[in-house]
Structure formats: C-alpha cells, structure tokens
Amino acid sequence: MRVLQAGALCLEYHKSNSRQNTIRGYEAILSKFCRQFADRNLKEITSNDVLSFLSHMTGNRKQETTRW
User: Fold this and answer.
1) 2 has which bridge partners?
2) How many CB atoms lie within 10 A of CB 3?
C-alpha cells in the first residue's frame, strides 16, 4: 500500500470516529508525512524514517509546546 492511500484511510477512520480538533491535528501531520513519503510503499518506510520525520517536525521541543 502506498503512503498516500494509508493516509487517506487513516483520515477516513478519524472522520467517522474522532472529534473535529483531533481530525484537524491528524490532517496537518499526515499531509506533511504523505508529502515527504508520497512515492513510497509503507513497507519501505523504516522506523528511523518515522523518527527522523517526527524529530524534524517537533524541532526537539517538548510535546505540549509542539505546533504542527
């Protein structure tokens, strides 16, 4: 499965099961993640890829001060 497909499925799930603020948060982070890894299959993405992405996104700030 491609990253874009997985991101779309994840958002569809949350649109049916989550509150609006949660959906907006997921949309923000998933759109950036999907842009970065759009041309790859999920199986190709390593845990190091994900950790590097999250580290870049948070800028080493504490979780409660992170703004996507």
Assistant:
1) 41
2) 20
Question: How many Cα atoms sit within 13 Å of 31 on the Cβ side?
Answer: 7
Distance of CA 63 to the CA centre of its chain: 15
The set of residues, in sequence order, having a beta carbon less than 8 Å from that of 2 and lying 6+ positions away, is 38, 39, 40, 41, 42
**In this structure, is the dihedral angle defined by the CA atoms of residues 54, 60, 63 and 68, taken in order, positive or negative?**
negative
Domain count, the chain: 1
Rounded to whole angstroms, the Cα distance separating 22 from 35 reads: 20
The stretch 44-50 carries a mean pLDDT of: 96
Give the global pTM: 0.74
- Reference 36, options 1, 7, 65, 66; nearest CA is 7
Q: Could you tell me the residue range of the domain that residue 40 belongs to?
A: 3-65
